[in-house]
Amino acid sequence: MWYHVSEPNSYLAITGAGIENVRITKKCFVMPFQKVTKISITPFDFSMALQAMTSEKLQFARKSSILHPLQTPHLKTLTNNASTRRLHHRSAR
Length: 93
Known about the structure:
The strands form three sheets. Strands 3-2-5 form a three-stranded antiparallel sheet, with helices on one face. A two-stranded antiparallel ribbon has the order 1-4. The protein has a two-stranded antiparallel sheet with strand order 6-7. It is an alpha+beta fold. The protein has one helix spanning 75-92; strands spanning 2-5, 10-16, 23-25, 27-30, 34-40, 44-53, 59-68. Strand 2 (10-16) and strand 3 form a beta hairpin. It has one domain (2-74).
């Protein structure tokens, strides 16, 4: 039996023996024949450089960055995503 604690920017998804679907939590005891996976909720940004030309044939470049803030996800959404991954993993075997 192991005790796992997630980092502030992540959740733990537990599957395996004794768990019907997927359990999403911040801390847990993991029994033998159970698997734990970390799900990160860290925000990320998209950086891009745009090069274009005006109708007067003047070139310009613009750099921009879009920050995509991930809010604390709903546990149901995390459970559905983890279940889908689990089903795909099983079918790939």
